[in-house]
Amino acid sequence: NVVRTFASGKTEKLVFQSLSDLGLPSEKTDSIDQEAFTFDKFYKLYSVICPRTDIDELYNSITNREDSNPGADTSVDAGTKEDTISLKQFVTFMNEKQRDPRLNEILYPLYDDKRCMEIINAHETKDEVKKKECISKNGLLAYLMSDENAPVFLDRLDIYQDMDQPMCHYYINSSHNTYLSGRQFGGKSTAEMYRQTLLAGCRCVELDCWDGKGEDEEPIITHGKAMCTDILFKDAIIAIRDCAFVTSDYPIILSFENHCCKKQQYKLAKYCDELFGDLLLKEPLPDSPLIPGQPLPSPNQLKRKILIKNKRLKPDV
Q: Which reaction does it catalyse (predicted)?
């Protein structure tokens, strides 16, 4: 089980040898007592088999070491100066590499010994290393992985779902050729794909609308000229209605690629009107008239509304 967990892309021999080096049973038929397989030993095994070579390179650049050995044990010997980053080196690294030089130095002052010692005390686990005013490779890794080193100011995350901006201010989770369950050429179309896609959180789905050829001339959805099977437009609309707002109340956009004749376009409109009912947005909102200079409505204003995106008919039609 241990080999199967760790040997992805690695040789089994490396895993067995690493277990042996840790004083653990290392033959294929051996079993390891759970009490002997402590987290500390697991962590050392993990560090040897899956070394953070990127952190090793960074560590060596900070300490100006050239004798890089990415596969070596990353644990720290506090008595070996080479295995720690001095306070001076850490201050230089924080100011020259970590700090954004575009920041205002009054609001975001440069790092000094005091500030760096606060970081060391917060993330270095070995007391003997802290006393020497140093940080180990593991301490550096702990700092780099912490919220303190987040790439985004954490206070900005509080407004990551501000849904009161105009619709055009957002990236929209969108689907292309939604009806296809397989290949783009010669694939199978099914209304079930609309259910699955909407339940997965998608907010924009595509309907490629074509004229139906049967006696009833029911409009169909298919990938035109690509030998895909087709489904009835009506069936897709029913699937969309049933699943539109199960996962989210935010608006749904139906992107019509409309190839239908005028007669069958009337059927498209009739089905949308009858099956969607009040869910369908038919007129501009009173607070957001569609005039130049007026912002589009926000997702919050359009909650539980279905919008249709469709090219206008040609002027001569």
A: a 1,2-diacyl-sn-glycero-3-phospho-(1D-myo-inositol-4,5-bisphosphate) + H2O = 1D-myo-inositol 1,4,5-trisphosphate + a 1,2-diacyl-sn-glycerol + H(+)
55, pLDDT greater than 70:
yes
Does 167-309 carry CATH code 3.20.20.190?
Answer: yes
- Which pLDDT tens digit goes with each residue over 177-233? 999 987 778 789 999 999 999 999 999 999 999 999 878 889 999 998 788 899 999
Q: Which CATH architecture has domain 2-66+82-149?
A: Orthogonal Bundle (1.10)
CA distance 74 to 142: 13
Q: Which of 149, 234, 152 is nearest to 191 (CA)?
A: 234
DSSP 255-276: EEEE---HHHHHHHHHHHHHHH
Using DSSP, state whether 194 is helix, strand or coil. helix
Give the chain's length.
317
Active site residues: 176, 223
What are the CA-CA distances from residue 200 to residues 172, 190, 262 (Å)? Answer: 14, 16, 34
